Please model this.
Amino acid sequence: MKLAMASCAKIQDIDPQPAWPLIHAERPDALLLLGDNIYLDRNDHHDPFELTQALDALYERQFAEPGFSALLQDLRGRGAPVMAIYDDHDFLGDNRYGADGPQALRDAARDAFIRAFRPTQTDDEVYRIERIGPLDLIVVDARYHRRSLAGSRDDPDAILGAPQWAWLEGQVAKSNAPYLAVASSSTFHAFGDESWELCRPAFDRRVTLLRDRPGARVLSGDAHRNAVYDDSGVIEIVSSAVARRSLVFKVLRSNYGILSFDDEGLRVQLHSLKVSSRFDFRIERSHWTLP
Ligand SMILES: [Fe+2]
Model:
């Protein structure tokens, strides 16, 4: 089973986006989009109607990008899952959190996402779990229920909110797939100003949940680089900047990840035009650590 992962695509800057045909050529069995799948031009939206218009227009542009469109069409034609979630730039804007503002605003952002990606779900929430071959893939919503760091740093329910935490812990407890991945937009280990590690009780709670579960790991985006971590005892694989330019020199980034699962373990390939962002290694089930 082959899972492709990607995040951070800015259609205003890069159109067409050369990474998608490369991902398509891998013939993945599933696609995980980890957020910042579009970029709002403004970070100060307060009018739900204006926000809806801005998000819908950007989703329309991204879904019309030929490589992205062809990949989605192929996946859907084969019945292959597309698991997507938003981060800040495809929600309310840079480093903004849903629970800090009015309900109507975050509902507008979530509704736009649902219209764009049509996730399978039974209620308004967009966090979910899907069994894909040997993998239970959980996608959490780390934006809608989140509060600013100042208001939540010491809260064990931070980032996800109490009901989603209970759901996540329940899903992990009953998962019996050989592999388990919990995907969220912002990075788990400390990177930048939005990592889970900055909310220590929530970070520790997720470590406790996953550290002793064989075959478990965390997948994330947002960081504009590929990276791997295992500092906490939980393996994290980051792939970000599928269609972005570097900050200073405006060099094209086409980063994406391919995770190939077999009975013995998992091959992790993180592709990048930048040499220091390339990875290709295996994690064996019998020895569940980074090489
Ligand atoms: Fe982000």
The longest strand covers residues 265-271. The domain at 2-284 is CATH 3.60.21.70 (Purple Acid Phosphatase; chain A, domain 2). The chain has a mean pLDDT of 96. Residues 36, 87-89, 222 surround fe (ii) ion (CB under 6 Å).
